[in-house]
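Hey Z.,

So I finally got round to the pyridoxal-5'-phosphate thing we talked about over coffee. Here's the setup:
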Amino acid sequence: QPYGRVFNFSAGPAVLPVEVLEQAQADLLNWQGSGMSVMEMSHRGKEFQSIIDGAEADLRALLAIPDNYQGGASSQFSAIPLNLSAEGDTLDYIVTGSWSKKAAGEAKKYGKVNVVATGDNKSVPDPSSWKLSPDAKYVHYCDNETIQGVEFKAPPVVGDKVLVADMSSNFCSKPVDVSKYGLIYAGAQKNIGPAGVTIVIVRDDLIGNSRPSTPVMLDYKVQADDKSMYNTPPCWAIYMCGLVFAKMRRDGGLAAVQQANEKKAKVLYDAIAGSNGFYSSPVDAAARSMMNVPFTIPANAELEKEFVSQAAKRSMIQLKGHRSVGGMRASIYNSMPLDGVQQLANFMKEFAANSA
Ligand code: PLP
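And the result:
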């Protein structure tokens, strides 16, 4: 790997393309002849304005975001009910893992949460069992559960209800039909940049109805009116996201990203399936994530620690599963090269053979 870099299978924050880091390094002291670092420029100045405008334009192009959708903001677990519902309203939540459970828990502070369905942490519950409420203000779900590795393969069908998606850990991993959603939100720190930026893509008819008690920073109207610059934004992080968006466009857009991601995920799931049961995927085939691949050594969990430590000696790091579920987890975000996944698959084979 260039610069002695490792294959980083971390679930986050931020694994970035080398090309982007090189560009950031080159720009660090003097951004495009401005004589300043991005960290040092005024966020009201024309230089930073061009960076944030460029990042937004590239993201809009990548996701083909219709013009009636806005961007910006953070802390969405509470911002969503505060902006999209009034006190006492019913709010529908589909729970498929740790993050959607957390989102539902937070929403309980603000409304009557109806849990539409609760998954078993290894599948998306059958839509025929969902109990959607007739009067819910929106239906919230998590498109990719980072910890469990459970991913929706298509948006849930919720009739004329406003669909709200947490896409934090699979944002920009594949094309998305934004028009199916009322709101999409995502932390940047998986596929698109450093921690500190949260993307919110919200349809404009959902803006402007926040509760009076909504903190100003969480009010979509304030953020939209101020073009995501009500306060001092995380300038450097936005700039880095902009570099990543531009690179993705140069590289062929999200269809190309998806193709590469499918190939990588297949290598890994094939390695698990081809291990004669030495490794096991806890997730049903239909819901396996293309981004976060948990796996275990069912016959001998003691070997899992050894696996993680031997892999690290070969520059394949952060393969330990989330502390709440154990096992291993390979997060293979956009910037993980196919070569890294192939080397992991080879190591899995070798480790299994040596442990037999
Ligand atoms: N939702 C999902 C699916 C996540 O994976 C994460 C973080 O890993 C979050 C929400 C929370 O993001 P943050 O740590 O930026 O609050």
